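User: Could you walk me through two proteins back to back? I'd like the raw sequence and the structure tokens for each, with a short line separating them so I can tell where one ends and the next begins.

Assistant: Of course. Protein one, sequence then structure:
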Amino acid sequence: MCPIGEHDTGMQFKETGMTTPTYDAKNPDPKASEGCGLCVRAFINFLNGTASDIQAEAETDGDIMTLTGQYFDGTAGKTFRGTLRGPADEPEALGTVLAGRLMTQAGTGTVPGKVWLVGAGPGDAGLLTLKGRDVLSKADVVVYDALVGDGVLAFIPETAEQVFAGKRAGHHYMRQEDTNRLLLTEAVKGKRVVRLKGGDPFLFGRGGEELELLSTYEIPYEVVPGITSAFAVPAYNGIPVTHRDFCSSVHIITGHRRADHTYDIDFDALKRTGGTLVFLMGIASLPDICSGLLEAGMDPSTPAAVLECGTTADQHRICGTLGTLAGICASTRVLTPAIIAVGQVCALAGRFSWAESRPLAGIKAVVTRQKDRTSRIAEMLRERGAEVIENPAIETVPAPDDELDAACRGIAEGTYGTVVFNDPISVRIFMRRLLRKNDIRVLGSVTVAAVGGGTAGELKTFGLRPDAVLSSDGRNDLDCEPDSRASLILHGRADDVSELASALSEAGGPVTRCAVFDMVFGRPEAVDLTSEIDAGEIDYAVFTSVSTVRGFAASCPGADLSKVRAVCIGRQTADAASALGMSVLTAQNASLASLAEALEEAAKDNCNI
């Protein structure tokens, strides 16, 4: 008898000419027979479209199921056969794995991929670990939970298949058994699978259960720990879970109780610890938790708090004592997710609170960016306390080679006396093209100008300090003598540079425009921006260019954009947002710092712009 996980693929059957699924005829148990049927069907389904003359037979012996299967591979010109044993309570996994192994042996399948259990942290995108974000960026499939923050979901690459496997409003979108099987099945196909879980995968997150099947069938996996809400949420509320003057231990307890079951929590033992108690998933059972601790003899005056939506823009705490907290919460609506903290350290929240003192605390903003680049403005807003969703809805497509080459030749031949870069993307694409066949000295006799501080900053990465920084309408004179040669404007295809071109024409010779790139707009899958906008859950949308306005609109089709308060870097960007019905606030000057300051002022004044 082969142990679980071993299989024999050395034997070959002759082609039979038909597909014949065979169930367990030896076992009269209907449940066992049904399991054998599921196993055989999974084997056949995995091979469908890639094989013919499939045969399979499954039988059970106690809690072990044995599957023997074969199929004819037309490419290899022969039949492949194998036997595999596994847990009888997961018949579909057994069928899938054997089919995958036979396909790998035949050369028509791939070696198994890998599964990563990644802790997404408590909500704040900045609390996702560096390793977690790196693994997520390379995923082929992402299976995510309801407690993963929007900011983290926005990091999922567009190329990845996205599967929601969470629980909302008491409804499971996917049973745990189905989730376990999905991870295995996708890995058998050779994919990089990320199981993205709120908090930490192993803290009440069923991460151990999800590894059982993978371990049984020797599917490679890794665990990327996450920051648990049990520690992060109290910290964001100014509550240190341990403090030498109050306690030297902290205890994390699940407050979730199955329907029609009594608590199996030892409240007497918790009382004796004298440490901080943190209950996760316990808001529905708050009265029972409080009464259980009181009955165990805990002092009713012990400080306690309910911490709502910690580390996000909706963060809020309800403070009281063990004797009063349940009554306070009964008279108000408690937002979830929320945790319960009990202990003397809760009294420090008012003294040590810091998150709400940040200038953009409580603000949820959307920043639209290119898919392949991080956003400096998003970083600046997070530093000021905002919850930021990076909406990677823009893909940059370079202009055809002949158009870029013609502009490069004009610079090399001295046709242009002035070159104006309209945006940072034009700098990156055009300079890389120019330097393929030239070195930086080709710009030695050319006046280089940049529209906006961001464009000027991008030029400096290529060792160029612009002679002038212009506004989008050409204001701010060039800091040089007029040149009779032509001027070249490098810009995005969708950008309107007519005012800039007119200003340059008035200052000198003819103007040539070169569209360096085009934009393709998409929409995120995991974050439903349309629903969040219509529900009033987005406080501001921040735009750094006309293209980001268009990308944002494309990413939330059907949304009521009149509900969007737009903060824009310049007049043209503001005009584009206003044309779509958004209320608009414009930064004083075209810089990211000024843009962040404009949002701060709007938030401070609770501005309805």
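----
Protein two, same layout:
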Amino acid sequence: MMKTRQERYVLVWVLFFGILSGCSKPILTTVQPSTAYPRQILSTDGSGLFTARAVWDHDLPSETDLNTSFLSGRYFQLPDVASTGNHPLAMRTSEGTSDNVVMVNVLAPSGSWPNPRIQEIMINNVFNDNGTDADYYLAIAVANGDADAVVTINGTDVPTILTSAISTDYFNMHIPATYGYPIYHYSLHVAFLENQNWGSTVQVALRNHDGSVSPQMSYTFPSSIATVDSDNDGLLDQWEENGYTAASGTVIDLKALGCDPKRKDLLVEVDWITAATPDPSIWTTIEAVFDQAPILNPNGSSGIEMHLDRGQGGVFTGGGTVLSDHTSMDFGPNPMSPGYTDFYTYKNSSFNTDRLDLFHYGIFGRARPNGSSGRGEVFGNDFMVTFANFTGLQAFATPRNQIGTFIHELGHNLDLCHAGSCDNPDRNETLKVNQPSSMNYLYQFPAVSLDCDLISDNAFGYSQGMLATLDETNVTEANGICDNLGLDFNSNGSTNNTGVINLNGDSNSTDISIDYNEWGAIRLDYRAAGSSWNNN
């Protein structure tokens, strides 16, 4: 019988992975995390894991095979009803069972399992392009998706496989039931679609094995094979594979810069004035924040690869220019604020226009006319860090303050405002106690708190949207923001107050404070329709 296209593609993968698996039994070394909740997806490390399956409760009467990632035991999901305590896990292929058995400690469930939430839809591969339509493997990144979850396209189930996941031990030390949307893991599901028209739009959802379904998300296919941007980073696949040809005729080798069409890349060039010379130590931290972002890519990797050109040499020689001094700087022209230096005066002289489609541009300056610490185009490509004149706790000399402000202002370029995505109605509300983000003024300088006490943990980045919503008209201080850790919101010396409490210090006490999913909302393609980019 003639096989379908999807079956033929799967057969190729089976043969490929079968060759990689070799003929020896698997070796299991570690499981991450080793303490987890029922239904959480974990990852294994070892060798010979291609075509291996995870064996739960090895050598016990309750021994069973687990749902794993496609053709591999690299990722597996704990049983929904796994009992509390230690369970032996082994890996098995047709060649035998791993000699090493790893114990997995299962915690008691805390609250109900959240419905899945689609983070992003990308392209894993394109086949059979005929100019009008093509076959696709879509890569759907999901929060709290099951290993055997099924993707639906316009309401119809399509073949779906799990390929990778991110799982942490964060909730081993917290109480998931006190969170609005606890995230146990992120997973990447590849779905096969045949004969999809270029430029068409579909509605995508994911259904877990308990029947819970994610909200639908729209996805519009590229207009042609030439415009495919698999990872949605604004850099077309053909640019990343073959080089980008600028209007001048210059070819920029993105591959030499480290770009990958199947992993998100973020290109940033940075210059500064002498008075605002950034501390050299900040760059590795900023790059690590994006590299460790809770984001999955079409190739199964996680994070965003940031390429910061600060003139460090090699292929990065565009940035690091020391600009002439100024009293203040802003985007211009602005007749309401005379006497400042126009950001674009610097850019026109120091930024290579061949990079306009590729790089964000940032300047560390002295000050803005209104005295603020910086400014970033909302969903654009330009930003500035401007607090060299600050003193006290916000002094520019502190690397922590420079990192937090850089990530904050670049976040505006990525379409984030002070309270989550700029599409949200309360986008400019800030000082929210339940939004752990560098976009929040509460954490821009002190750095983000990763737990429930509002005290900085010297972390940076954007929120995942996990904390519970707070209503200022009905606050219970004893509940705090999570883990039932009481907080003195109104600063009266007690954590036993209830009722109306102003949480963010604004002019009213009627706000509904929501922790938005910022990492899932960032937009890397500043050339897209609706952006603030003006080709400058």
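The longest strand covers residues 185-197.

Let me know if you want the two compared in more detail.
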